[in-house]
Amino acid sequence: MRLDDQPWLTAPATRAVMAALEAAGGPGCARFVGGCVRNALIGAPVADVDIATTLKPEETDRAIRAAGLKAVPTGIAHGTVTAVSERQPFEITTLRRDVSTDGRNAAVAFTDDWAEDAARRDFRLNALYADGEGRVFDPTGEGVADAAAGRIVFVGDPETRIREDYLRILRFFRFFAWYGRGEPDAAGLAACGALAEGMTRLSAERVSKELMTLLAAPDPRVAIAAMAEAGVLAQILPEAATGPLFDAAVELSSDPVVRLMMLLPSDEAVVRGASARLRFANAVRDRLVAAAVAAPEVRLEMGDAEVRAAVYRHGARAVADALRRRWAEKPAAAPNARRLLALAEDWKRPTLPVGGRELARLGVEPGPETGRLLKAFEAGWIADDFPSDGHAERLAALVNPPRG
Question: Is the whole-model pTM more than 0.85?
């Protein structure tokens, strides 16, 4: 089998890297590996071009520099050097075999055996190689067929592969979400469930990254349901609840943060706890919390003025996210939900039109009274739907309320 019509394969930047490696190691010393080969076979976009080589890391480094390209020792202890050609990075890794592993990190030895390198990879559809001419090599004998059929199958014994690196449990579901069809492989699913507790050895950052990538898949519903059934989801996110709300959210939004939001309850304390434990990025944490705080104030029965008031208090994104939750709860209310969502996202939050300076002109000394009067003004201004005039009169009435 040969890869045809792949711009990345024949690009000058790619050719330069392959030529540099073959100048040092001879023809056949380097092959494209993993995702670029898999995606090319199934017609999916290719984002990163990774290369495997029989050259040792220091030989790779010298070969890249000798060709006038930039070499970055990104993971040289594990055999990885990144070549930069025409500003494009190419991750080049020496063929490896595992010497020992603790389920999180592996000690490796370098090899020149392509079959050994394939045997330590996670899934058969990722253990695919192609040479510079596009000829495909499938050491497991099943990788090409798996890619075509949408099967995510571990290389060799599933439990053995998982014990080498427990992150492979999450990768099983992540790859299924992106490339799988039908039902997940039964043996792989059973192994993931049996060894789910081993994920406690993983760093929170590795877990959250895999989860967010999974949720970004076009349709992660089958994968998430399988994770829940196997007990894997409860291991990493015990607060999560699958079901109609999450299913509806997938239909409503491709945003992984919105989808994560629908797995979690709309409870500020719970969301904060989950975010801290999994060490979500600050932007993700803040968005989840803001939506949970805004949610009690947000209903699909809101009037336009109520939407504007909520946006003023909580921000457009928080209100929009809370509205998406209500929409997912009541899919039949889609027309009104769309209208309210558009209003929340398009309305420009105004700035409070008065401040301490205006109060000083009315004789109010700086201090607690200034804060009280400004809060009272703001409450009335919001209640009246943010009028653009009459501010001086309203403020004066608060400072000197009419008698009788």
Answer: yes
